[in-house]
């Protein structure tokens, strides 16, 4: 008798194929689910493979459009960056994938979900927090955290042997000496030979971007139009070509960014689980959008609103990285950020060249930029005398503090505000 | 009889030459002071010019070493960036320049200081807050905020006429249709034709960096060594060349960065005075250091310390931009940031190419990176089962919230944590 | 010929009466405006006085209801406290008063507004930032910042002489040796003999609250009901009496709080203008509400939402104190805080006694409190084993750091995480 | 053969006595350790009981002085408050207790430590994070998280039976229907009948403070002197009595606060583990110090330093609550806060009466309060005209925004800065 039904996030690869069979061995009915979020994949082959391995049902789901609109767009609005560098391409995909998995589990009456994420990584957390949030009673089977599983499959060799024994097709091409994760937003590379933080990444690692050295010798100039903080149109200025649906816009930016080698980073980051890890990422379209959005936002948003929103964006990035997309606080912050984007509207022109994005200019019907006010040549509605008062009042705190110190001349340049007895 | 002595921050240009003469006309004794903070300048010519215009005394001060060590280095430690983009090259020079001006004023018994900064900009504030902090009784003459002055000199033409009338040498080359400010850290360009935020910057604007399009077709690879968060050595990996004093290190990074077109940005920013302005900056060496420091810092600093320090860095950047270097709060924050850098030590290898800086690898005797702990191939001293408990406890808040909602199946993927009556 | 029309914020007192006459002398038509925001005042007498002094028109406006609903309620939602102690009773009244003043100015076609606030205080800023925000072209006449005025009226004696000369009724009772500001939310006392921060406030200073020593010897127990973070009903538990409109609720809380001496504080605070000042405040109803709201909020709001909201509340309090109620950032923050209050609903029981408010219990249909989950006697849907993993994963950062230190036994209790070379 | 040696945090009560015997049953050698951190306890009796139950060694450690100096004092400097209300009396004791436990474990060569904290609370985390930080290789036995233990001892009855069977003296007085935790800083009450958040706490619950209703009818006035942010002397103004060692000062403040019923709160708080719990606390001395320190700090600290320090204090309180005293980030924050306290020095006079603390006045040699500057009667070194410029520059952002809106008169009071198309 079956122990129940599991919806397994299935990639078609060796690991999750072994998990599929192992789950069956353990007495579960297995439904496989493979999300198309823009990765290169032979989805048909994966489907057939799953069926041949005994999956009760196979779901292949195209989530690309909702991935862009519901997950990438809010991240663009937030200028979400983790630890000042990482654009969160993996993190943002996880709640999107897990949400559909939960929908399938509920629809199919499955009490279990399962995934092949490791026990040391962030993804297990991102998947499972989403699952628990959307399906509180769900039971999660994470084989890489179950001793009977991980003690049996200590290395790749054990998986290969198991595969051969159970008729699981074994990959013929040797595995790259690192692991990768790909979706519409980025490809990440980690583990294996990359674990040594000192060693340089091999030149042939990157799949989504050309090497800047091999990139075209002349730039592509784009104009990106925003409304409410999200892109609504991208135009190639010279070619006149344009895109205007979310998925098309993002895919086109990937194409242009990829061609010019945009968005490669090599970082050490801090996992939620408490350890540092080294990751290499390429995020071509996301990097272009990051720069463009930052520009139009600063152009159209009040300084102090921006300051508060910047702090919320940092928090949002941490939540996203840690797997809390579906949490009260992340919903709250997304709401606030969305509110801040009401007037983030206009066009940014930028040049993409040899791994870099250069902002060239911007315009907006809602800009708060006041050319007359700022002009050096026109006085405008501004009285320079006001600045004197402004400065003097801003100096009140430190002037009265310094006077109090009654600092002797020979130490006039010495610091020491804090402990007024220094001097 | 003299109204007193003024120490004038003198650039040798048309504006401050007119101010010099005007101050004399107004009855002041004028001492000129010109700081060498790395800008291209004929200091001898400026000296002679000031003397010929009647300066009572002329100071030319080489502040380059202290500028790097006491001002740029703390900014590097802080990863100081204003509004996510601007590396603060102008802001960081101001307290350095004004500090020496105040030292001269005190030493020469001058009650007044003067400068040629405009009434709409940030620099007036940065200069004057420094002056008031270090010399609370000082009186500041800011001609561009004095109606008799600015109403008399409405345009450049008025200055030219005044110059001719008073024997002030008039520049023969036409002025660029924008204004610029240069120092060791960067050159900024603004005003004039750049005031239209939509128009692209002319290709020939940049003086410190080559155009990425004309930059060499092969990268330079550098190794930068840090100790306590500041660079102590830079080595050109191929050529074996190295530098190890602050000024030499920074100048060399400028040379390499400049050759590859690194550090150009075109932004709209928010001035302290409340208006938005457009600025174009090139910060070659500073940009390389920003990336390198960020990398070694994340490698050697605890995650949560880093998070707090990141917030302090954002505050530091705002203070620096707004002119509060010499303030109790900035001293406090510099102290805290400095404390955070105690273990920020090690070497970063990076490649500079076509406007971009690529981190290649890093090593450190104080790294918190634990290769065994993070390894996918080795279990290490880590029990994957712990992650299950970690995730489940992290889900307690949202699980109990969702359970409470008792959300009906058909809405299982609907959001609505905040207002639990939605569903 | 008239220089134009001024709307003067008129209190009926000596200062603004002199200002009224002085403005007429200066050639303005003067409209007086007196807001009833709950202060003790003979509004009829003030009206007659203004008319007799030559006011062209006299407005007496009852703003009490809108003051509570539109200004106090958002502050309650925010738990707004300045510098950890001050409940902002003066600050919150200023935008309310100035808004109506601007409405009158626009409606009456006046180009000017005027007020009697001093040049060293916060109120001038709060009034004027509101005026500029709502009527950008307005011109403001602040006599206490105009040399001809403040040099003429150096002390109270000068005002008295001027009053006598111009037929302004002179107060017969001697002025208290401090100044005060009263409204529905609080009375503030400052200046005069209170300027010495060491000297104790006189016992007879307080007008809104009884001395706790003279307060009743038994408590009053109230139940306050909240919806969306604002009180919708207050009930006296024993007497059964209840109030349910905003103004009635707040007035009743003032009555109860006042009777028991609730909400007295004596603080030194930091003005926006940069100086420290000493203020004494009594905020009876506001203090009760502060405690009650804090309680129901923590009961019904998710922990992490609360943490973010707490930070926004601190920012809101600073904006409010500094006069930025009508600013983009304050509008933004109010919106976010309002969003956070959607589920802040329920009843709080509290006891008011001898200057103190004691929370006794709370209940809510939207509480996130889960009695079973937290119970020591019932396991509930919680597996204690999960906590082990949670703790161990939370220890990963410091365990791996400490292991690295390889700290010798004799120093095992020594600190020194930050600089790992200490040990 | 012994499985090894365990150092058990032993309270002398039923639970830990059963744990002691159970550990022996399980094959461990047990060393008991009981910390005196100021709770009421018969330490001799506890010692004898442990010995009679078979403890291999018994440690009774008087930690009161170090508890005050090394743990409470930094919390006073930080103004540490969790969720705006809780003064962290339990949290701050945990690292102090666990540190000594670890010292004993290392000294006695024990590989294990054990405690009787429950699996749903915060204390398990605070104990264990300290243990792991100071003794990374330690193994922790937490019986209330071990199924064999907690399934065997489901209710108090099981413990009683076990006790009787194993010769463990059974308490004769019935247990209070709640649990409590006492130390020098506070007593906390929770669980049992208190788990219903609506029900009022029984009047006879409190042990450390008198009921305000029964408190003396006249206040005690104290003067507390601070240096570097910590109290160095407390004087009873009338009686002339004074105390000047940390432990004496704190004990005396407890005595005075206790007599007047100071520091009682009834709150619902958010545990680190994700659930809300109801706690009742009495913190007499800590509450007095909180108010006094806040006062002297604001009096002597620059406004902007204070603002940054306030944020650090909130973070410190969260770390402390969550158990991260011994963590890199908490060490860092303590260092920063300590730095901020350099000039926090002076005397505060306050009155303690009927549950409340009233600040009466303060003085300091390092005050930044400038009586002349703030005076309403003296101009001082302050030009009121400067305020005009200050205000106008502060209005630039919103004036230019509003002008842009070109808001029609009839909507002049309407809000809508953020979405400039509203109007």
Automatic annotation (TrEMBL), chains A, B, C, D:
Question: What are the recorded Gene Ontology BP terms?
Answer: argininosuccinate metabolic process; L-arginine biosynthetic process; urea cycle
A molecular function annotated in GO for this UniProt entry is: argininosuccinate synthase activity
- An example Gene Ontology cellular component term from the record? cytosol
Q: Which UniProt keywords apply?
A: Amino-acid biosynthesis, Arginine biosynthesis, ATP-binding, Cytoplasm, Ligase, Nucleotide-binding, Phosphoprotein, Urea cycle
Span of the signal peptide: none
Q: Which Pfam families match?
A: Arginosuc_syn_C (PF20979), Arginosuc_synth (PF00764)
The record's annotation in CDD domains points to: ASS
Enzyme Commission code: 6.3.4.5
Domain of life assignment: Eukaryota
Q: Which SUPFAM superfamilies match?
A: Adenine nucleotide alpha hydrolases-like, Argininosuccinate synthetase, C-terminal domain
Q: Know the name of this protein?
A: Argininosuccinate synthase
Whose protein is this, by species?
Hucho hucho
């Amino acid at each position: 008798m079956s122990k129940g039904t599991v919806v397994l996030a299935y990639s078609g690869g060796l690991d999750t194929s072994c998990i599929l069979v192992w789950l069956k061995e353990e007495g579960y009915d297995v439904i496989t689910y493979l999300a198309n979020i823009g990765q290169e994949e032979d989805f048909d082959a994966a489907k057939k493979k799953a069926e041949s391995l005994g999956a009760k049902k196979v779901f292949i789901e195209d989530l690309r459009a909702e991935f862009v609109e519901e997950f990438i767009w809010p991240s663009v609005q937030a200028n979400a960056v983790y630890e000042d560098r990482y654009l969160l391409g993996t993190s943002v995909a996880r709640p999107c994938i897990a949400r559909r998995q939960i929908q399938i589990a509920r629809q199919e009456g499955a009490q279990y979900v399962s995934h092949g994420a490791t026990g040391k990584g962030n993804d297990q957390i991102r998947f499972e927090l989403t699952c628990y949030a959307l399906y509180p009673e769900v039971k999660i089977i994470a084989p890489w955290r179950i001793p009977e599983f991980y003690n049996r499959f200590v290395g790749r060799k054990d998986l290969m042997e198991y595969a051969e024994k159970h008729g699981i097709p074994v990959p013929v091409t040797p595995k790259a000496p690192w692991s990768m994760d790909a979706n519409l937003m980025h490809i990440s590379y980690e583990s294996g030979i990359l674990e040594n933080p000192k060693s340089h990444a091999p030149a042939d690692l990157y799949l989504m971007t050309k090497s800047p050295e091999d990139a075209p010798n002349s730039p592509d100039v784009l104009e990106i139009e925003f409304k409410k903080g999200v892109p609504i149109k991208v135009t190639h200025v010279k070619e006149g070509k344009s895109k205007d649906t979310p998925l098309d816009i993002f895919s086109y930016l990937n194409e242009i960014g990829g061609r010019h080698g945009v968005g490669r980073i090599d970082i050490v980051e801090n996992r939620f689980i408490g350890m540092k890890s080294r990751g290499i990422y390429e995020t071509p379209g996301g990097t272009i959008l990051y720069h463009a959005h930052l520009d139009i936002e600063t152009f159209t948003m009040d300084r102090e609103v921006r300051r508060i929103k910047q702090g919320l964006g940092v928090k949002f990035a941490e939540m996203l990285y840690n797997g809390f997309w579906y949490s009260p606080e992340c919903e709250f912050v997304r709401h606030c950020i969305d509110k801040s984007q009401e007037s983030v509207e206009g066009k940014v022109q930028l040049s993409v060249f040899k791994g870099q994005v250069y902002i060239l200019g911007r315009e907006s019907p809602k800009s708060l930029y006041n050319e007359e006010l700022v002009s050096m040549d026109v006085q405008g509605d501004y009285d320079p005398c006001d600045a004197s008062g402004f400065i003097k009042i801003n100096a009140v705190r430190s002037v009265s503090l310094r006077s109090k110190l009654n600092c002797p001349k020979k130490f006039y340049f010495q610091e020491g505000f804090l402990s007024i007895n220094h001097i």
